[in-house]
């Protein structure tokens, strides 16, 4: 009987709460108030601050389009010119060098990695020095023929990479405030490596003649080169996907910088500049 009485009391309490919540001038039950789900959209509209666990989604379409357009321009301007004009006045090589200079300049101007102005200095310095050193070493290796350009680029890459590492560490040691040292050092080295690799696009036009010939005439070597070409395309696609992810995870201060998406889109293209010299050296290593 005691249990039955308890059930009756619980039922009467429930009915009483329902009556209070439905009658005229009723006071809403606190327990029944619907919870407000804070979303990134409402927070971004100014309704409330964005919690740390919520990130506003960013479109990576401009970054991807920048890379696709850059690759298209490189193919049209450099490869097509080399195919149509051959080595007339080395026009294709001059266009490749011009493309490298423009990419480095745009990357530094529309810097996509935040930080301080001083972190942008090492990259373009070693990048432009790489173009000059590549020409000097290529002339020194003139006895090697066309391979002298690839060998000269590889030698310049190693020398300037060592110089960039030393310069980056010296730059950090000269700072009075060394907070965020690892992050600043990584930005400087990333920019330096990208600018050095970008100079490799100057050799793109020289691949028009040797690569198709070797792939068609040399059986095993040709097959290896076809596989290498596929691997190179895969690397560029992976860099494209990685850059889109970097952009979505970038700091707000970086994203809000005008045209910073252009610098982020050029970064993978510059890193992929190591592929043309590597492709030029591959037949020499295989034959």
From TrEMBL:
Region: Disordered, residue numbers: 1-31
Q: Which UniProt keywords apply?
A: Membrane, Transmembrane, Transmembrane helix
Q: Transmembrane residues, as ranges?
A: 68-88, 94-114, 121-138, 150-170, 182-204, 224-247, 259-279
In terms of superkingdom, the source organism counts as Bacteria
- Name of the protein described by the UniProt record: Uncharacterized protein
**What is the scientific name of the source organism?**
Bifidobacterium aemilianum
């Amino acid at each position: 009987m005691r249990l039955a009485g308890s059930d009756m009391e619980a039922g009467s309490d429930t009915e009483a709460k329902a009556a209070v919540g439905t009658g005229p001038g009723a006071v809403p039950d606190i327990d029944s108030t619907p919870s407000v789900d804070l979303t990134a959209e409402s927070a971004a509209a100014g309704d409330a601050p964005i919690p740390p666990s919520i990130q506003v989604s960013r479109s990576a379409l401009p970054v991807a389009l920048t890379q696709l357009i850059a690759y298209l321009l490189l193919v049209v301007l450099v490869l097509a010119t080399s195919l149509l004009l051959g080595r007339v006045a080395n026009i294709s090589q001059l266009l490749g060098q011009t493309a490298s200079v423009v990419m480095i300049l745009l990357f530094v101007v529309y810097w996509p990695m935040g930080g301080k102005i001083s972190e942008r200095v090492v990259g373009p310095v070693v990048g432009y020095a790489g173009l000059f050193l590549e020409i000097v070493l290529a002339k020194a290796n003139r006895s090697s023929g066309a391979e002298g350009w690839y060998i000269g680029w590889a030698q310049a890459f190693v020398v300037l990479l060592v110089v960039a590492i030393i310069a980056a560490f010296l730059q950090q040691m000269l700072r009075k405030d060394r907070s965020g040292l690892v992050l600043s050092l990584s930005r400087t080295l990333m920019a330096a490596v990208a600018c050095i690799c970008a100079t490799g696009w100057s050799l793109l036009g020289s691949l028009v003649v040797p690569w198709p010939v070797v792939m068609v005439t040399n059986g095993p070597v040709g097959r290896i080169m076809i596989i290498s070409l596929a691997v190179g395309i895969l690397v560029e696609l992976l860099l494209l996907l990685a850059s889109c992810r970097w952009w979505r995870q970038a700091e707000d201060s970086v994203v809000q910088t005008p045209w910073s998406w252009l610098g982020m889109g050029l970064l993978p293209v510059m890193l992929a500049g190591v592929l043309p010299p590597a492709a030029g050296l591959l037949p020499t290593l295989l034959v």
